[in-house]
Each structure stands twice: as structure tokens, then as C-alpha cells.
Amino acid sequence: MTSKERVAAVFAGELPDRVPRWCGASEEFWSKAKSELGLDDEALRHRMGDDFRRVSAVYPRPDIKLLPGATYCSPFGVQRRGIGYGMPMSHPLQDAVTAVEVESYPWPEAGLLDVSTLRRQAEVYKGEYSVMGGEWSPFWHDAIDLVGHEELYFKMYDHPAVVKLIFEKITDFYVETTRMAFEEASDLIDIFFIGNDLGGQTGPLMGVEMFREFLLPSLQRLIDLGHDYSLKVMLHCCGGYREFIPDLINAGMDALHALQPDAVGMEPAGLKRDFGDRIVLNGAVDSHHILINGEGPWKVKEQVRELLKVMMPGGGYIGGASHDTILEETPLEDVLVMMDAIDEYGVYS
Predict the structure, then answer these.
(1) pTM of the full predicted structure?
(2) Could you report how far apart the first and last alpha carbons of the chain are, in Å?
């Protein structure tokens, strides 16, 4: 099977020739790996055995003057500082309590998205790989940036209509920008990959009823958008969110990534038992402890072997780390061993 056929079989509920492999990594880890192995991007993907490729549109931001100390400005005008994308320096809608205040905020225009290179990006792969596309759509994180995390919870109780309108405006942007991308190249894309971290180490960041009232409508819009273009939809979600999974399945979510096995409720055996016949499960090789601690390749290989015994039966599983961003300090050897072990032990007979 080609990588594209292998992944398609998993999403179709069929057994592939072997477990597909996924390798998501931080830019810093990826640069380290290229340097240590003397490989370019595509050669490194081949070495990792990654069955996936990703195409991205460009959102050319207007000229924005960063504040002193700021390193980044989000599409929603929130300036941030710190490592990577950093942390928000202010919450411009923190005091908003009326629809007028929300409507008057300078929301970004979807029309600025540049999708002109998507076809060229995807055509390079010549139909061999499972291609992911569409906007990441982190509407939950953007709302936190705009309002503040604690304040957002307060507003859910005190001003629910205002919070719903904020989510709607943020999701409008992601739906329209992604629609532009899909109009340009959906025939070359297989998976709409989105991300919102809804859990912590000890469980969900809110109750099920609050999730259903405030977040599920936005997720439903994104799921429906992907399905409108005959694409599978996969959600990256950190932490423990087991309580939300039935609602995600009912909404039509096709896959969950990346399954943190040490978070409450996310034990791989339980997820496989309770949901494995209804949704694709992606990840669960422990990048929080096993991969990063440098205990030795034998430890990584053993964890992969035991994990595959649990996750492989009946199909519906994609092998990879328990986070999409393998950190720079993770030993390269351990990641290579993980990918090779999935290949070695993940064969369906």
C-alpha cells in the first residue's frame, strides 16, 4: 500500500498492511534531526516513515507595529511575547459585556488568506501520502487570548450570549479561510486537521454541559465544513478529555490526536475498548516521559510493542507520539526507535 492508501484504509474501518506512522515535531527538534542526520526535510520524513504530509496557506498580515517586548501578533490582534508564540500581553475583550462591543472589534478578514500555492504544495507528493490541510482553527485558544482564561469562564456564566458571539466571530474567520483553501485544492487534500486543547493532566478544562453549550457548536461547524468537501476531520487535543469523546463522535469527528496516556481518563486500553470501533485513534507513545527521559531505546521499543498489542486489533489506529510537537530536548535516537518499532511490530498479517 502507498501511505495514502494505508491511511485511507484506517479511516474506512479496514485493516491496512501495517499501522500508519505519524511524526509531528517542533521546528527546533526538526532542525536538530536534519543537522544530526544530514538530511533535508523530505529525506527526514522518509527516514521517519511518516505517512502524512501537510500543506498550508499563508495569511499575510498587514503591517502591525509590535509593542516593546512583543514577538508575535495573532490574526485577532493579540500581541504576545515569550518562547515560540509566547503568551498574550493583554486581553482586548476582557471587559466586553455587550454584543455591540464584540461586533465593533476589528475582526480579521478571511479574504487576505493566500491559497495560491496549495495545489503546487500538494502536487509535489504525487498522490503517495495522506495530505492534511485547512486552518488549524484554535478558536478556544483565541478566545482565551481575547478575554483571558479565568475571565472567559466567568463570562460563560455572567454573559453567555457575549461568549457565544465571540466564539462565533472567531469561528467565522476559520470557516471562511478554510473554505477558500478547500475551494482551491480540496481534491488534493485528505484530512482537515484542527487543534484545540480542551484538557489538562487531571481531566477536562470544563464540564460536559459547558462544553456542549459553548465549544461544541464551533467544532460542529468545522466538522461539517470538512465533510462538505468529502474530507476526514481530525482533532488534535492535549490532556484528558475523555468525557467529551462521545459528543465528538456524535458530531462526526473522524479521528483524535495525540492521546496523552498519563492524563486522567486517557489510558490507551480504555480508549480502544470504549471508542476504538467508532473513531480513529492517533498517537499515545508517551512523549511526556518515555521518549524525552532518555532511558534508552530499549524502553521506547518495549512501550511501542506493548501499545501496539492494545491498539492494533481491528484497525483504527495510527502510531506516533502523544503530542504533535516533539520537543527539541527529546533524544533523536528515541524518536527514530519509536518510528522503527511501529514499522517492525505494526504489521497486519
Answers:
(1) 0.97
(2) 14
